[in-house]
Amino acid sequence: MLNSLSGRFLILTTIFVMLAEVMIFVPSVARFREDYLTTRLERAQIASLALLADDMLTEELEAELLKNAGVFNVALRRDEVSELMLSSPMPAEITKSFDLRGARPMPLIRDAMMRLANPDPQVIRVIGNPSLDAGQQIEITMDTEDLRNSMIDYGLNILWLSAVISVFTAFLLFLSVRVLLVRPIKGVVGHMQAYSAAPEDARQIIEPSASVRELREAEEALHSLQTQLTSALKQKDRLAQLGGAVARVSHDLRNILTAAQLFTDRIEMSEDPTVKRMAPKLVNSITRAVSLCENTLAFGRAEEPAPALIHFDLASLASEVIEAERLAIGEYDLSISEDIPAGMMVRGDPEQLYRALGNLIRNARQAIVASSQPGEIGVQALSTDTDWIIHVTDTGPGLPPKAKEHLFQAFQGGVRKGGSGLGLAIVFELVRGHGGELTLDRSDETGTVFTIRLPMGKLM
């Protein structure tokens, strides 16, 4: 029970109520002491009035009056004259004097606490105003033993009452928390456990029903999360099945297209003008189909192999990629430049980074060619204290808004008409495998900038 929310709430409530009662206890005891002393003054005043009424009181009657008043001496000031009205032998010297006329709370609290802390009986003088304006001042001497015992009894009664109130209040709050908070939370936890056992089952999705606003907001948020997760799991399952089918089809289709490429080599040798005109287009179409199949198969693997990390010259690798792309440019008005410091050594997998740079440059080339405008592609690199940074820029038309929304998602981030969207998804996976990051820094009508950031530290 102590480890439960309601059990801890019960304990904390009891402690906090007791602390509040202690805050009340101190001034209450001080007030009790003041009332006690005031009562002694009133009793002494009554005894002195009896003496005024009859000057012939016997010593025995005077002693009885002092005993009933609980004091040793009574001095009353009337008509600007102070007179010792009643007196008896003093058991000890007066140690302290207390003036209750206009006493402030803090001195009263301090004196009360000091009296509780001091168990030794003392004789004190108390000064106050007479009741009903029966004089200017009344003064008594008294023993502190009865005062301290009465204060202790009063304090114990307050403490016991405070304890009873604390336990009763805490118990009521405990029941309230169990009903209003703990039980609904357990219901939410039960829904979560049932959902985790079968997340694909839409019947396990929680239906918000709590009356407490905060709990209902939590249930609504959980309902939304479970709904989205169930849909995502179903979509993932369908995509997994579709991916397996596409991979099998792509494998067989690639073999068929490879054979078709061999036949197109023969067709290109034909002397027929029509064949000569159509053959290059046929070759390009088949080449693009083979490339699509290879990319689909590459992305459809369970995962890319872990990069084989070595130090290599980035400038040499970039030159190889650029030379291969220049062959594909032909006579089109498009230039590719590089600005990489000579001898800049990068730690990574050369083959995977070759594919990553190749995909970025190829995408830029295809975007510029599709725009039918001259253009430029640039590859720049630099190093910081923690990273190697590679920028791939182009002066193409920029990415359409729809492509930016799902830029690095396979089959969704395609830019070109008929594109698969696999190129950037593959680059993203390859860079992430190096512990790095691929970002789109800018894309507008003036061009596009992609940045690859590779950490110099060890892979996490």
Automatic annotation (TrEMBL):
EC nos: 2.7.13.3
GO molecular function: ATP binding; phosphorelay sensor kinase activity
Keyword vocabulary terms for this entry: ATP-binding, Kinase, Membrane, Nucleotide-binding, Phosphoprotein, Transferase, Transmembrane, Transmembrane helix, Two-component regulatory system
Protein name listed in UniProt: histidine kinase
Catalytic activity: ATP + protein L-histidine = ADP + protein N-phospho-L-histidine
The gene coding this protein: senX3
Domain Histidine kinase stretches: 248-458
Keyword set includes Protein transport: no
